[in-house]
Amino acid sequence: MKNIKFLLLITTIIIASFSCDNDGGDSALVLETGAVPNFVKDAASDQIFDLTKILNGTAVNLAFNASVAQGTPSTADIIATYSTLAGPTYTSVLFTNVTLPGDFSLSTSDVIDAFAELNSTNDFKLGDVLTVSTRFTMSDGRVLSLLNDDGTDNTGTTVSNSGLFTAKISYPVSCPTMLEGNYISTVIASSLPIAGNFRSPQPVTITQPAAGTYNLSDGTADIFGPDFPVALEFTDVCGTITVTENSIPFGAQVAWVQGAGTSLDQDTGVITLDLTYTATSCCGLAGIQFTLQLTPN
Known about the structure:
ten-stranded antiparallel sheet
């Protein structure tokens, strides 16, 4: 069964890649006729809106470098969205007509001043996210904004999932978190027989590419067979784990929704992921439920 799923996934990827290369649409235009930024956070600055600092009245200082990774825009603006856990998303232009590459910094007060909807540090709530990207104006007059007003990407998966550049950076309102490390992944429940369908236990690694955002080296428990891991992304906001639906790097072709059993035991460090493959998942995965227990080594 694992071999069948593996072959189906490979076939799906080949078909999808062929379609993107030959659809004549926008799938390649972002790179060929547009422009893409690259952002790098200053490691010496705050990586999140540290809620502990904010509640104690300590300033949070954000700093980053922005450059043009590809393309030749005529002008560039640094834009941002502030997405609230309560629902509304606010938009702002942080810096206008900037020269790239360039270094930029934002204090807590700067962020409040940038968004009319924010009045004080009391408006920073756990789970809110500040996302920063660019708005380019090209020589032919086209305006390319890499963020939609609702905070979602205004790009295709080629840009969003590229390992060559970082088109946006995010600063969640959160608490300091350190879940990266080596774990043992065990399937403790499943709608399929565990034996023969999963590798359990399985050594896995969790990395933290951005503050509060983590990548699990394999979120499938080896369902496609040996040596074919599919990375899963999740966030930790002060002990609340949220799984990103689409996998890395296969997007909606291998995707999960999390169940109520997803949790983090902050005393033991054990992470439990209650997962079900979405209807968009390929290869007969749709609807399969399984629970991973990640125990730190």
